[in-house]
Specification:
Length: 144
C-alpha cells in the first residue's frame, strides 16, 4: 500500500489522543512513526529511528516506539532498556500479533490505538506517573 493512502486512512487525532491518554498514568513515553518508502529489516530500521528521535534519552529509559512502513507492509515495536527489563518477550509478541491481525483487516487506526493502549498499560504497571513527571516527547504521529 502506498504510504500516502495509508496516512490518509489514519485518524491522526485519535492516535495522538490515545498516546496522551496512555501517558496520563505513566512516566513512560510512546511514539508512532510512519516511514514512507521501502525499508530493509524493520526492527533494525526502527531501532535506528528510536535513536534518531532521541527516545533513549527519556529520564526513565522507558520509551516505546511503534514503527510502521506501509509501502513495505512491515512494522516493528521497540522499547528502551528500562521497558525490556520489565516486560519480557511475551508482551512484545502479543502486541505484534494483535497489530498484525488488525493491519491484515485494514483497521490501521485500530491497530495503532490498541498497541498504544497495551503499551500504556505495561508502562503504567512498571513506571507509574510521578509528581514531577512531564511529557518528554510529542504525542503527534511522526511521518517521514
Amino acid at each position: 500500500m502506498r504510504s500516502k493512502e495509508f496516512l490518509n486512512r489514519l485518524d491522526h487525532k485519535r492516535i495522538s489522543g490515545a498516546i496522551a491518554a496512555a501517558e496520563e498514568s505513566t512516566s513512560g513515553e510512546i511514539r508512532v512513526f510512519i516511514q514512507r518508502g521501502e525499508i530493509g529489516e524493520p526492527l533494525i530500521t526502527a531501532e535506528k529511528k528510536f535513536q534518531e528521535l532521541g527516545m533513549h534519552r527519556t529520564a526513565g529509559r522507558n520509551a516505546i516506539l511503534i514503527f510502521v512502513a506501509p509501502r513495505a507492509q512491515k512494522f516493528a515495536v521497540v522499547g528502551d532498556e528500562g521497558v525490556h527489563q520489565k516486560c519480557g518477550t511475551e508482551f512484545w509478541q502479543s502486541l505484534v500479533d494483535t497489530m498484525s491481525q488488525q493491519f491484515k483487516s485494514e483497521n490501521f487506526t485500530d491497530a495503532l490505538v490498541e498497541a498504544i493502549q497495551s503499551a500504556g498499560q505495561l508502562l503504567t504497571q512498571h513506571f507509574p506517573r510521578q509528581g514531577d513527571d512531564r511529557n518528554e516527547l510529542s504525542d503527534d504521529v511522526i511521518e517521514s
